[in-house]
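For anyone still unconvinced, we reproduce a single protein record, the chain in one-letter code, the fold tokenised, and leave readers to judge:
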Amino acid sequence: MATAETNLKKIQVQRYEPESDPDQHYLNEETGLWAWLTTVDHKKIGLMYLASVTFFFFVGGIMALLVRTELWTPAKTFIEANTYNQIFTLHGAIMVFLFLVPSVPAALGNFFLPLQLGAKDVAFPRLNLLSYYLYVAGALIALISIVNGGIDTGWTFYTPYSSTTGGAVTIMTFGVFVIGFSSILTGVNFITTIHKMRAPGLSWDKLSLFCWSLYATSIIQILATPVLAITLALVGMERILGIGIFDPALGGDPVLYQHFFWFYSHPAVYIMIVPGFGIVSEVISTFSKKHIFGYWAIALSSLAIAFIGFLVWGHHMFVSGQASLASMVFSFLTFLVGIPTGIKMFNWTATLYKGSIRVASPLLYIFGFFFLFLVGGLTGIVLGSIALNVHLHDTYYVVAHFHFVMVGGMVMAFLAGVHYWWPKMTGRMYNETMAKISCVTIFIGFNVTFLPQFVMGSLGMPRRYFNYIEQFQIYHQISTVGSYILGIGFMMIFYYLIRSLYKGKKAEPNPWGSRALEWQVNSLPPLHNFHHTPVIINGPYDYHKPMDEFQLGLAENGHGHAPQHEAEVSSQEPTKAE
């Protein structure tokens, strides 16, 4: 017993003390383009995802600026109406399917899930690489539509227009179809990894809330994405074979498409935002130096959101002619899904209360997230009311609501995660002053862009219109100015993060003083994350314990016995401490 306890203490030191040679890390193990293209290291795959989603974010962002510039005047400003329709369609499709859905789970999740589990990699490394190649292949297929006739259906591909119009609708939908397989395989990989690859001692109550959020997200990816794949396949068959699933002339129903599409696409909103919730929990706890308030409430609320999210798709269809009783049920469920989200907001606020707060740039992005996502959530409740929704449906109010949730919520959380984990991913520190300036710039630019759209929408301005009446011009012009401020903020981020790779200060293993497991290895992490299997005694939010006690851990539990993984401990290789 004594030997096992001694070994446990020594391994716990290994678990919390970085290796003595920081130059041995995952980026210098194999070099060259071919090594990157064939790697099965989850960290490199995560970085490739991060580079890819960043590229598509900027492509989609440029298209957003083109849309806003065109809307500077009520009539034509510089592009034709058909071109305008194609640009806003590509903006929506690229941002949703190529950036929002994969950005946190596939990029940050790939990099940090195994590190937070004490694992050497994900459960299926080759499947992980295949997921990335499916994502790239689907993206390239979708982008072919730009040069092959364009697509002007909107990112929702609504029938009957999408099944009868010209252009490259079939190519675009096939590209999204392929990307869906990437999402499904990533979800399978993550769930298996969480169940089977946790380090000894890492029980469910010691799991990081970021892992919990990825777990809930993976469930949605596996269950909802096949519905989208089938729906888009039916659209392709409708166009190519004329099967008539959505064609009334052949006995079909175009509204059936909306049911299929939104059964996926509303849960897809939670694929985008729930991983962001996990980032918020990590950053809040680290920069307030407090144990997260209501751990189980936050963890289980992610699963509750995943479950209820499958039941609310009908609130997109209040004006589609569905039964009044169905609309009432969907309205109630829309209100209900706000409860687990409200639980998270309350617990995050309680965690900050009386905390030892360090206002670094990751936390500043989280503060921006709080305000913007709160506005997005409350306006979502407004749209969940049937009477108000009938008036506001398909207006700029919906556009503003969606962007407050997705950009104000998910993108702000994503930026917080990138800034929070940048030292661990790259081994370099960025310019903190510029990071804070860019955060404020983005916050101001975002509000200037989208707050006027709430006013426009409430006054009846329809979304997606190329021309508009002059009374809305001032709101469009304010919104356009805000979009350029927003673009400047994002370009600042790109500049100082890239600059940090060459001139940034070398990052310490744990610059934020976090208790989470991924911060207890070197920056940059070793190729296989841990040279010895870590034994987990303390949780990632145990800031209430003294640091020396936290580092060494406790060899005995409250009953005076060694932990349950004693056999595994005694079989470990000797550490350097021995």
